[in-house]
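Handover notes (outgoing to incoming on-call)

Open items:
1. Ribose-phosphate pyrophosphokinase: sequence verified, structure written out, both below. Nothing else pending on this one.
2. Nothing else urgent.
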Amino acid sequence: MPRHGELKIITGTANPALAEAICNHLGMTLSPTLVSTFSDGEIRVEVGDNVRGDDVFVVQPTCAPVNHNLMELCLMLDALKRASVGRVTAVVPYYGYARQDRKVVPRVPISAKLVADFITTAGVSRLLTVDLHAGQIQGFFNIPVDNLYAAEVLLDYMKSIEGDVVVVSPDAGGTERARAYAKRLGAELAIIDKRRDTPNKAQAMRVIGEVKDKVAIVLDDMIDTAGTMVEAGRVLKENGAKEVYACATHPVLSGPAIERLKKSCFKEIIVTDTIPLKEEAEKCGKFKVISVASLIAKAIHNIHTESSVSVLFSRIK
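Ribose-phosphate pyrophosphokinase structure tokens:
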């Protein structure tokens, strides 16, 4: 039996549609929460239900506007803590600042660690996230962290793609992820040898692996400005790929990303709803959104009932 009281789910303004979908899978309704902004820009948070002794899950990705959504999350956690919540789990499908996970030059912060400190100090008991950019971020917390893998929902759709499939990593760092997907799909693996000259700008160099006359799926954990992804698609086409798909868990889509993807050679761009898809991207017609709501709902159920969460992990190397 659960030890932490009644299960309740609340959400901020970052991705309420995902929170509603999670509740639908669990057969429950969202607990009312008022989240608004005062005229001077300060955030106002008020939890509408009595949560004393309850097991509360706060659904709030820290996507753009990152600082606003992060502050919202911390204020909701603090409100719950001061309302004598039994246990509170932060459900952060997209963890902002995850790419700043180490010092690469002198005199810079390790922002991912600082964000972990913010969230922990605000009163969270546990963190639930999806496809962390760097797995070692779990070690920045002194509380349990469950990092789910979107492969569980993405692979079901990818298996419907017809043709001789090859899974492509856009850089050497993503090889492990691409290999796991390729193994599950029974597909070949290829890697783009890439040279990055400046931040958010990438120059693809050559393809390692056979892609000629194959259906190539370029796989990454996120699409930010889309420079890496679009360049990878171009190089694959130049090397004889029959069709090219893009696949990523988090559709960050900042700056020129949507315009680049509109003009790209991708037949389809497969993403999840960890981040709400921008309206301009929806109108583009190239995007296919796969929901992670069922995966997160299962994890919430297992956490609440003290069951294993690791059974939901997909980590085949």
